[in-house]
Amino acid sequence: MTSIRTETETVIKKILPYLERRGYDLKSDFDFETAVVTAERYSKGYIDVLVNLGKPKPVFLIEAKKISKKLNSKDRDQAISYARSSEINVPFVVVTNGIEIQCFNTKNKNRILWDGKPLDKIPSKEQLKIALRTLKSNPDAVIIPLSSDSSLPYRPGLPLRQLNALFYKNHSMIRKIEKDEDNAFADFSKLLFLKLLEEKNDNEDDFELPYSYRFYELAEKPVREADQVKVAILSMIDAIIDRTSYGDVLKEGIKLNNPRTFYNIVKSLASVSFTDCSYDSKGAAFEYFVRATLKGKKLGQYFTPRELVQCMLALVGREKIVTSVLSGSPLKIIDPACGTGGFLVFLLQDALIQLQDKLKGRKINRSTYDNAVEIIKRRTFYGSDANKGVAASAKMNMIIAGDGHTNIQHEDSLSSKATNWSTTFSDCDLILTNPPFGTSEADSLTANDLLQYDISSTKGQHLFIQKMIKATNAGGEICTVIDEGVLNTDSAASLRKYILKHCRLIAAISLPGETFKPNKINVKSSLLYLEKRDMPDEEFEDVYKTTVCEFKSLGYQGSGDKIRGFNLDRLLNEISTLLLDQSGSSTREGYNWKAFDVDVQDLVNDYTHRFDYKYWNSETRKKIEELSESGNLTVAELNTIPTQRGKSPSAENYVDEVDGYALVIKAGSNISKFGKIITKGADWIEKAIYDELLEKGVEIEKVTGEPCNLSFVRKGDVVLASTGDGTLGKCAVYDLEHPAVADGHVTIIRPDLSKIDPYYLADYLRNGFGAIQVSRLFTGSTGLIELTPEQVNRIVVDLKSDIKEQQEISKALRSIELNYLAKLNEADLLLVESKSLLN
Q1: Of 189, 338, 379, 390, which residue is least crowded by CB atoms under 10 Å?
Q2: Which residue ranges does the record assign to the DNA methylase adenine-specific domain (predicted)?
Q3: What are the extents of the domains in the chain?
C-alpha cells in the first residue's frame, strides 16, 4: 500500500473500516494515490482510492477531503473529471470528507439514490455487480437498486477525545434536562445498547432485531416529533425484553422521562459508527460516565488500559484459553471486579479471533469451531461488579462482543453470598483482574463475610487477593493489577507471607507511572502473577526463582496519547517468549522491559517479605553488598542518637518568626532539594511551648530509661524529609543558631563527627547512592509513601577514604549546584529582558 497524503489520511482511516465491512479486501481491491491526467485541467491529479477489485480495469473511485471541509460541487466535479479520464473511465464516483458520503453518476453528475434513497452508502462488494449492471444498461441511471439493502448508512468512527466529548455532551444534557445524575449512566447505557445492537445486526448475519426502527431514521425526525422518538425507543426496549435472549440487561426500568432527552441522545448516537470506534475509545467513553455518575460513591473504580490487558494476556499465554477449549478441558476465567467488562470483552474477542484463524487455516473443522465458540461464549468467562449499572453495562459489552453475558453478575465479590466464586469451593482456573484500590470494606461486609478470610483486614485489595487464592484450583493462575503499597508496606507483610505459602510467585512486575493517568488516576501499581499450590508450603521449603520485572512503557504518555513509533507487538512477543525464560542469565532485558530472578528463599528470609522491583533491584543490592563488605557503615552505626522522627507541635501553637523562639522544620516547606534549611515563611513556636516539650521528653526518659529527643534539632543535625511524593528524600544540615524542632514527617540524624561529615551525609542521602537506597526502601504507593526510621537505619553510607575526602566531595557538589542556580537566575533575567522589548 502506498503512502497516503496528510490531508486525506484521517478520512481514509475512517472510510477503509467501512469498506472492509462492506466486503472489500483492503489489500487487493484498491490502489491508492493513482496519478491521472484530466481532460478538463490538462494537469496531473491523484485519485485517493481507486477501486479495481484486483483487476486491470477500475470500477469506481473515491475522492477524499479533509474532515473539516464541507463537501461542495467543486469536489464532485473534481472526482468526475478523474472518472472521465480515458485511462480511468468509471461509471460513478464517491466523494467523502470522512463524515458524510456522496455518490454521483459520472455521466450526468447527479447524486445517486441507492434503492431510491439519498443515503450515505457505498455498495457492498456483492451489490457492486448489480450497480454496475444497472449503469451499463442505463449510463444515466440515478435510482439504482441494491436488492433492498437494509444495511446502515455510513457513519464515522470517532477517536478517543471526540467520543469522550460526545459522551460528555450527553451526560451534561441528561443532567440539565432530567435533573437526575444518579441514573444517567444506566439510562444512557440502555440507549447506547440499542444502537450497538443495531450495528451488531448490520454486521452479523445470524442476529436479527425484532423491530424495524433505526436510529438514523429517528434522528431525521423534527424536534417537534420528539415524543414519537421516545415511544419508539420504549417499544424497542420492550421488544428486546420480550423477544430476545438479551432482555435481562434492559429489565431495570429506564428513568428518562422528557421526550427531548430521548430525541437528543438518539440524534447524538446516530451520528457515530461505534463499530469503527476503537476498543480503547469506547472503553474510555464508558469509563467517563462511570466516573461522572459514581463520583463520591467510593467504589474504587480503576479502569484498565487495553495495552495492559494485552500484556497480562501475553504473560499468562495468549493461546491458553483456546487450547484448553479445543483439548476438552475449558477454563473457568473470572474477573471478580469486572467494571464495564474491559478484561472479559478483550479476552472473549481475542479467543474468537483465534478460533476464526484456526478455521480459516483449516486447523479445525466447522463442527469443532462451532462447539468451541459455544463453550467460549457460554461457559468460559465470568464477571462480577458491585454496582448494578456497571454490571449491566458489562453484560451489554459482552453481548456486543460476541454474546458472553450469561455469567456476568451484579454482586459484591467479597461477600460470602457471591455466586461467581467462593472461598469454600475452588473452581477458578484463571483470574485476570484489576480490583479496586484503596477501598475499605468495613461498612459493606458483615462479620460473617469477614470470616472467609484468614488474615484479618478490611482493606479491599487484601481481601480480594485472599479470595482469589482460595477460589482458584490447584495449578490455577492469578494475574492481577495491584497497588504497589501491597507489595512493600509493613502492614501487608503477613499477606505477602500468605501468598508465598499458598502460591508460587511466578512474577512481580512494576508498571510505568503513567499506567492509569489517562483515567485521571495517579497511582503506582504493579502486576502479580501467581500459581496456586497443590498444598500450602507450611515451612516455606520450596526452592525456586521468581522473576522481578519493570515495564518502562506501555506505549502511551500520561495524557493517554500514543507514543509515536512504539512497537506494542514487539513488547507483547517478548513478554510471552523472553520475560519468564530463566534458562539463561538471571538478569535480562528487552524492548521497554528489564527483569532479574530472585531466589524465593530470599523473599522468605527477608523480614519484610517485600515483592517490589525497586527493593530487589539486583544492581542496587550488589552495590550495597560491596559497600558493606568494604567496611562502610549504616546510618544506624553513624547516628549518635536513636534514629527517629520529629513530633509535630500542635498547629494552634504556631507563631510568626518575630514572636517565636524555635523554628519548626517541616518536610515540605523547610528543607530544599539543594540541601538548605528554608526559614522564609516558616512556622515557629514560643519558648514556653519549647520548654514544655523539653520537660515532657525528660519525663519520658525517666520512665523508660531510654534517650527521648522527641523533636529537638541541634546545630549539625541532619534532617531528612521522610514522607510524600516530591518531598521524601530532601535532606539538609541544620546549621542555624536558634533552637529548632522537627515535625512528624522529618527524620533526625545526629552524625558521629569522628566518622562522617554531616554535609557529606546530607548530600549522600539526597543526591548520591544514598538517594537510590532511600528510593529502594520507602514503602507505600503514590501519594502515601514514607521512609521509616528503621528503613533509614539500613542505608549503607560510602565513607570514602576519610572525612577530608567527604568534605571535598560535598564542597564540589554544592559549588556546582550554586553555579546551576546562578545560571537559572541569569536565564530568568534574560527572559524578563526579552519581554521588555515589546513594551
Answers
A1: 379
A2: 279-534
A3: 6-144, 160-293, 306-616, 636-811
